[in-house]
Amino acid sequence: MSVDQLIQKIKEKQNPSVAGLDPQISYVPAYMRERAYREYGKTLKGAAEAVWEFNKGLIDALYDVVPAVKPQSAFYELYGLPGEEVLHRTIRYAKEKGLYVILDVKRNDIGSTAQAYSAAYLGKVDIDGEQVEACPVDSVTVNPYLGTDGILPFVQDCKTYGKSMFTLVKTSNPSSGELQDLLLGDARIYEKVAELVCKWGAECMGESGYSSVGAVVGATYPEQAKTLRKLMPKAYFLVPGYGAQGGNAQDVKNSFNDDGLGAIVNSSRGIMCAYKKGDWKEEAFAEAARAEAIRMKEELNSIL
Amino acid sequence: MSVDQLIQKIKEKQNPSVAGLDPQISYVPAYMRERAYREYGKTLKGAAEAVWEFNKGLIDALYDVVPAVKPQSAFYELYGLPGEEVLHRTIRYAKEKGLYVILDVKRNDIGSTAQAYSAAYLGKVDIDGEQVEACPVDSVTVNPYLGTDGILPFVQDCKTYGKSMFTLVKTSNPSSGELQDLLLGDARIYEKVAELVCKWGAECMGESGYSSVGAVVGATYPEQAKTLRKLMPKAYFLVPGYGAQGGNAQDVKNSFNDDGLGAIVNSSRGIMCAYKKGDWKEEAFAEAARAEAIRMKEELNSIL
Questions:
Q1: DSSP B106
Q2: Of the candidates B275, B257, B267, B256, which has an alpha carbon nearest to the alpha carbon of residue B293?
Q3: How distant is the Cα of A259 from the closest Cα of chain B, in angstroms?
């Protein structure tokens, strides 16, 4: 689904936020982990099934509040093949519930290899003439370090299959500046990447006026976000770093355009671990997640 | 296994090369594909099983010639869950045959997420106190765009578990210069990344005098390799781009130190598709791969 469909879901839910599904095992309520360990042992399978039960509970509680979910591939690869299987199950389930699925994989490689990654997640796999889907999602994150020929296969599949993508521009982590902020003459690296995002995105414009080639811009760097918003007026921003990483609603405001669109703000730990704050019982993890997602929605709407 | 163990295997085989296992389905001999399709159909499973049979034949023919193999994750993710399963099977089989396994995943993320990736591939996964291996390999490739805190978890696991890693510095693809060659004052981005590689690597020095934190430096940019060799004297270089991508033996010479060590040169298509050149029959794909691997070994030794 292209950026237009993401925007439609954001408007329907009146909520420019995405729930990150980054299920470290310590996030999963203890009773749920113990149940899975009783059945499968403290194994990759046991951990993965606990994650699945947690994810399913979260999706059931969130699908009418948030427009999108963002599974973080690392926390499924972490549990080996059983983890990968649960990632696929989670994606399918989220799509069945009408959610827009952004798979956070940050893939990057030379052209022919980037094409394989793109076919796996956005496009189709050609098996001697049969067109097959491997792990179909609506959107992926990519890393720009290899330049245009590592990005174009994704752009092409966004066009062909009506998908979207988010290129890392300015990430939310403390050391993001080490490379991204380096000064070239009078511009920073992240501004140079922003220029490329505009160039790549020009071929993928939606009816909404936004491009299906978006950008990752961390909530933890609001001043840089302001600059980047101007440099990439038509790129949708995926904004990590809100909540647990320290970014607040005022900080993310700079990532939005005056039309109240242009950004979707991610919260992972804040929503998944909401039950660990306040007086929630573990069994109410989903209810707590829903309450936090609604609180976040209201907070975001209050600043827009 | 640390860089010392890689060097030991290189010395034993007298061969500083690594066979890339990037099995696009079109690389697999037609009779082998057809056999898999008869059993499993033109499905992800059919493609993955054809890839497995191909990989097994290649490993059987190469394990006493090359010290290492480098599976490219994209070409397994391409075939969904059956592809992932074949990746794991390939890794296990290569390790049983005594090969050093470098998994080409180019992972990158913020600190806590990088830790999950590193645990999955280099370290161990903690499942409520049980230490489990998810997808254990000897080495991975990583992307530096997020800076130090996305890299340190891998460095830590290299130290703890005696593994190695290769950070993208100057990649082999045509557009690698778009970001990597940008000029900051009097240095290029790739030189800046080289400085970081040295810093990260200082804590991971082996008895060989080389660090377990290595660098990816493309064979297609020999002049840049010469500069980078001086800037990172103790980093092992993983050198893609030899053969099919255009780099020749003279081009890769610059990636080696005067001790004849310091680099391992990758060939993927050149070895895997050797049977498509000359008078080989498809059934002799493994023999052709072996002949090409031996030719490459001799060529590399002739320039060192």
A1: E
A2: B267
A3: 30
What is the interface pTM, i.e. ipTM, of the complex? 0.98
What number of C-beta contacts closer than 8 Å exist between A and B?
A: 215
Q: Which two tokens stand for residue B211?
A: 């660090």
Nearest CA in chain B to A27: B128
Walking along chain B (304 residues) 10 residues at a time, the average pLDDT comes out as: 95 98 97 98 98 98 98 98 98 98 98 98 97 98 98 98 98 96 93 98 96 97 97 98 85 95 97 95 98 97 94
User: Pick from A127, A133, A183: which is nearest to B47 by CB?
Assistant: A127
- Closest CA in chain A for residue B129: A42
B78 vs A79, A134, A173: nearest CB = A134
Number of residues assigned to chain A? 304
Question: What are the beta bridge partners of residue B142?
Answer: B107, B167
Cα–Cα distance list, B155 to B148, B191, B199, B214 (Å):
10, 20, 11, 10
Closest among A193, A102, A115 to A154, alpha carbons compared: A115
B33–A128: do the CB atoms touch at under 8 Å?
Answer: yes
Instruction: Classify residue B129 as left (phi > 0), alpha (psi -120 to 50) or beta.
Output: left
- Chain A residues near residue B179 by CB distance under 8 angstroms: 144-145, 147, 189, 192-193
Which helix (H) or strand (E) element contains residue B216?
strand B211-217
Amino acid in position B267: S
Is the Cβ pair B127, A171 closer than 8 Å?
A: no
- Nearest chain A CA: its distance from B111 CA (Å): 7
The per-residue DSSP string of B275-299 comes to: GGSTT--GGGHHHHHHHHHHHHHHH
DSSP assignment of chain A: --HHHHHHHHHHHT--EEEEE---GGGS-HHHHHHHHHHH-SSHHHHHHHHHHHHHHHHHHHTTT-SEEEEBTHHHHTTHHHHHHHHHHHHHHHHHTT-EEEEEEEE---HHHHHHHHHHHTS-EEETTEEE-SS--SEEEE--TT-GGGTHHHHHHHHHHT-EEEEEEE-SSGGGHHHHT-EETTEEHHHHHHHHHHHHHGGGB-TTS-EEEEEEE-TT-HHHHHHHHHH-TTEEEEE--BSTTSB-HHHHHTTS-TTS-SEEEEESHHHHTGGGSTT--GGGHHHHHHHHHHHHHHHHHHH-
Q: What pTM was computed for the model?
A: 0.98
Q: Within chain A, which residues score under 50 in pLDDT?
A: none
- Single-letter code of the amino acid located at B114: A
Per residue in B77-125, pLDDT tens?
999 999 999 999 999 999 999 999 999 999 999 999 999 999 999 999 9
For residue B9, the one-letter residue type is: K
Q: What is the pLDDT of residue B150?
A: 97
- Could you tell me if B105 and B46 are in contact, meaning their C-beta atoms sit under 8 angstroms apart? no
CB contact under 8 A, A77 and B116: yes
Q: For the beta carbon of residue A265, count every other beta carbon within 10 angstroms.
A: 26
Clarify whether B170 is annotated catalytic: no
